Amino acid sequence: MIPMWKALKVIRTTCIKNQHMPTSLKDAYLYCPRCGELFAERSDSLSTCSECGLHLYHSPKPCVGIILVGDDGKLLMVRRGRDPHIGTWDVPGGFCEINETVIEAAIREAEEELHVKIEVDTVLDSLPEKYPYNNIEHSILSAFVIARIVSGQPTPDDDIDDMKYFTAEEALGLPFGFPSLKKGIQMYIDERKKDTP
Predict the structure, then answer these.
(1) Are residues 136 and 168 in the same domain?
(2) For residue range 85-113, what is the model confidence (pLDDT) as tens digits?
(3) pLDDT for position 80
(4) Exposed/middle/buried for residue 164 (C-beta within 10 Å: 0-12, 13-18, 19+)
(5) What are the pLDDT digits (tens) for 55-72?
(6) Cβ–Cβ < 8 Å for 39, 31
(7) Rounded alpha-carbon distances, angstroms, from residue 56 to 7, 46, 61, 125, 141
(8) Does residue 90 sit in the same domain as residue 180?
(9) Residue 112 is part of which domain span?
């Protein structure tokens, strides 16, 4: 059995060697976290330990993206003040916490990032995405919601560099770090067209 300190050293070395290119989960975690043995089989979705039988699934982490619509119909976009993709445009949002629904996550994230209370009108759909963090490429699944502010004035938290209202069509032309954002905004545009007689 491989001691855990040695397994962690291998993970750290792998990440340092690939610091300019995120390492996949299957290549970042080579050893079983339960018994310390080298994984016998590794794929993009699953690593299997032949020693203790652990199946470690590399499932996507759930996230929420808030398409925040102002009174004039424009969308509130934020510019990322932290990595990953610092300096690119985004929608407010973030990771869902344990035992939290997508709507609950959207409400909490709006309070944390913008200090406003929102009401979610529609849950659109979810889109897969890659999220590079600490030189490891994680899979995420971003659910997009349409919401509006019901209380407070948007005040950005420290992870937001700037914020501005854009029409949906203008927003499509912004430089995004995450490709799914453009698809999410297009979903909003398509949904809006359905509601227009």
Answers:
(1) yes
(2) 999 999 999 999 999 999 999 999 999 99
(3) 97
(4) middle
(5) 999 999 999 999 999 999
(6) yes
(7) 16, 6, 14, 27, 18
(8) yes
(9) 61-195
